[in-house]
Design goal:
three-stranded antiparallel sheet, 6% strand, 187 residues, mainly alpha, 5 helices
Length: 187
């Protein structure tokens, strides 16, 4: 028994026409939506890797410029390491979610905490960069150390907690899409 004629999800977020005996072409907007999804997700993926690279740069700067971690070098470098790990693991997770070929909405939901982490690190990097190049001694304040701790350890905790939950939800959406594609009518 075959399914009645109609539009069906092909498993990639696009609709295909089933005429009762064979598949037709993609709907008029399917190919354009797929390309747009790919561009949006590629841009976010690139931004995540840039933020991860910048986090490593800040970690390297901390090792080379002692004034960046003058108050408590071990604590501050540990916080920078935690944040850099969160950024890089977030970039890996984003690449994985992108590879699942999800819709833009599912991709955005699956990476929202990771994007917040990256934004916090870009803010941190901006503050560090401005302070280093403008030779502002405020980096040695306790407030800087507290901010560094908050961003560094907070990023890692956020990635492990809600970030991983969002990643698992994206994987579940991918599995559901694959299951729906497998159960759709076959020619």
């Amino acid at each position: 028994m075959t399914a009645p004629a109609g539009w069906y999800d092909d498993g990639s977020g696009s609709q295909r026409w089933w005429d009762g005996s064979a598949w037709g072409a993609l709907d008029s907007g399917g190919a354009a939506r797929s390309r747009r999804h790919s561009r949006l997700q590629t841009r976010w993926n690139v931004l995540h890797w840039i933020a991860g690279s910048w986090a490593l740069l800040v970690l390297s700067l901390a090792a080379l410029v002692p004034s960046l971690v003058a108050e408590d070098p071990v604590r501050d470098v540990a916080a920078l390491l935690a944040g850099a790990a969160a950024c890089l693991l977030g970039a890996v997770a984003t690449s994985s979610v992108r590879g699942m070929r999800l819709s833009d909405d599912d991709f955005i939901r699956g990476t929202s905490t990771i994007r917040t982490i990256e934004a916090a690190w870009l803010l941190m990097i901006t503050l560090v960069g401005v302070s280093v190049f403008a030779e502002i001694p405020a980096l040695e304040d306790a407030a800087y150390g507290m901010f560094l701790q908050l961003v560094g350890w907070g990023s890692l905790i956020a990635l492990i907690g809600p970030g991983y939950s969002e990643y698992r939800s994206a994987r579940a959406a991918s599995a559901a899409r694959a299951s729906a594609a497998a159960s759709s009518p076959q020619p």
